[in-house]
Amino acid sequence: MRFCPKDGGIMLPTKKDDKEVLRCKKCGYEEPLDRKAKKAYQIKENKTKSGKVLTTSVVSEREGRKREDDEWEQEREEYYKEVGLDLLRDELEGSEESDEE
Ligand SMILES: [Zn+2]
């Protein structure tokens, strides 16, 4: 993130003619956008975009599940039963071993 040398305002990439420049939000001071700065800003932009996509897909998934809630609930119960049995088995085996010693 770059800051304006005049007032310390945040410099944001802006399109000017066909070039991209960094412009201060407060006073409009402009600075040429070099490769390094551009890369840094692009990484931040990409992160925000992917975050938004993730949120949207999660919401739509939940909406879709509402209609088949029962089905989903059953699947989940069976899954937890399996996992729970495995965990229980491990615990029993572990305690048996320690009892013998
Ligand atoms: Zn400024």
TrEMBL record:
SMART domains: RPOL9. Residues 2-57 form the DNA-directed RNA polymerase II subunit RPB9-like zinc ribbon domain. InterPro entries: Zn_ribbon_RPB9. GO terms for cellular component: DNA-directed RNA polymerase complex. Keywords: DNA-directed RNA polymerase, Transcription. Residues 54-73 are annotated as: Disordered. GO terms for biological process: DNA-templated transcription. Residues 60-69 have a biased composition (Basic and acidic residues). Transmembrane segments: none annotated. It comes from the Archaea. It holds the Pfam family Zn_ribbon_RPB9. This is DNA-directed RNA polymerase subunit M. It comes from Metallosphaera hakonensis JCM 8857 = DSM 7519. The lineage of its organism: Archaea, Thermoproteota, Thermoprotei, Sulfolobales, Sulfolobaceae.
